[in-house]
Amino acid sequence: MNTGIKSWFDSGEPWIWLNAGAVSLSVIMVTGLVVLIAVRGLGHFWPGAIAVFDYQEQDGSRTQIMGEFVDHEQIAKKRLGGSGMENIQGFISRFLIKTGNRDFTGLDFRWVEEASLAGLQYPEAVMLVERREWGNFYGYLRGIRDNGQDLSAGTDLWDTFQEYIRTSEVVFDQIRHIEKDRIGSTNYRMERLRLEERGLEIKGIPAPGQTSVIAAQRRQLQQEYDVLTVELARLYQILNKTSIVAMLADGREIEIPLARIVRAYRPNGMNLLQKTGFYFEKLWEFLADEPREANTEGGIFPAIFGTVMMVIIMAIIVTPFGVIAAIYLHEYAKQGPLTRLIRIAVNNLAGVPSIVYGVFGLGFFVYFLGGRIDQLFFPESLPAPTFGTPGLLWASLTLALLTVPVVIVATEEGLSRVPRTIREGSLALGATKFETLWLTVLPMTASAMMTGLILAVARAAGEVAPLMLVGVVKLAPSLPLDGNLPYLHLDRKFMHLGFHIYDVGFQSPNVEAARPLVYSTALLLVIIIIVLNLAAIRIRNRLREKYRAAEQH
What we know:
By secondary structure, the protein is of the alpha+beta class. The protein folds into three domains: 51-121, SH3 type barrels (Roll); 143-265; 301-552, MetI-like fold. The chain has 15 helices and 13 strands. The longest helix is centred in the N-terminal third of the chain and has 47 residues, at 157-203. The radius of gyration is 31 Å and the shape is flat. The model has no long low-confidence stretch (mean pLDDT 86).
């Protein structure tokens, strides 16, 4: 018996099963985590039913509460606090209700005990209004006021309300286009003229003709700006003349300007098809719109754009430097103690905490290198920094420095797998060492280079700590890419999905409202990393098959 067990262990089969079990367990855990994130995140966009019920407060009074059931838990009675509750045994059931209306009630969420609920109803007339400020509003529609005229009587009030929302959304989009695009472009050109004039003053160049040209261009831009401000005032007047009258659960009537409303719907009256359409509408808003309400509402498109842009720039920077370093170490450097020491240093760099790279990037890239660039090329902007402040370029360079050891190691391993006979055969046919390396060795190493790039992208896309020091912000006023020269603004700060998760999850003033967005953003970050990796893996596999076929021929 013992001999059979010993031979079984000596065969190595137990270790194969142990390895397979460990891999299977890891896959199950990762899959379970992704499924949990997906369920918690994607479920946030489904329109939940709005309940109305009577609730008995601790002082014995009864109040009517309106809102969505968000969570449920069992809690020990002694945890409720109060005198005489310390020794009470047993548990009670309670619900977390999203009540909204925090500008009127002071609370967005509240816990209610199940035993104190009475008269639970789901009336179809209850509406949910998504606002640009103060979060959701729950109540009943009672009227519409358009320029002082009451439209409550003689009209289909809800359909009229929806038509007004669609009209206001068109006007709001026009306002955003004027403010961000047209006025933004005008302000940008006026600032460029100011810097050009300031540059002439610094150089001491007497150029009255050029000064007069700048003054004429400034007057033209000022005229454009004045026309845009008049148009903007007209649109705001159209937007602000309409409001709705709504009733709270306690019977109070309040007035909400239409300019603050994003959308309104009645989830209790929706059928399955309407809820599905609404779900995908909300999901698209999450992917394509800008955030609002301290990043707890709206979309995260700027964070998606910033993450992808930073990873692409990082990949463009890290790939040539990592490959060149690996080629030098493996093909040209004299193999000795110094080269071995460099390899050890490269391997150790991969284990340095990422925040250390952030501190280095802030000190060297931002303050030293960026400060020198401002002094040499942007003296007219000083003391306001151009590149001497955290931005997209420095964040990409910092992450390139962080991930370059991975590319070096992967490329060097690929170079070592190329048979020596291929090099010797190329040299024997008259090719130089550079031609052999460029035309024969590097193409056969392309798959290893892509492997290093895949690992670098996977790590860089999820890093947060160094980015907090070298360019990421909570909310960027504009994207790094726009219609103004030079189009790609590497000096601008940007948003990032990883930092967005940290900010919404740990810095938000409304934790309960932010929690679903943390799951949604985390799922999106995982999906983006998977997509980038799959794209790189596909390229690697195609290169591998291409040069494997070449080797066979």
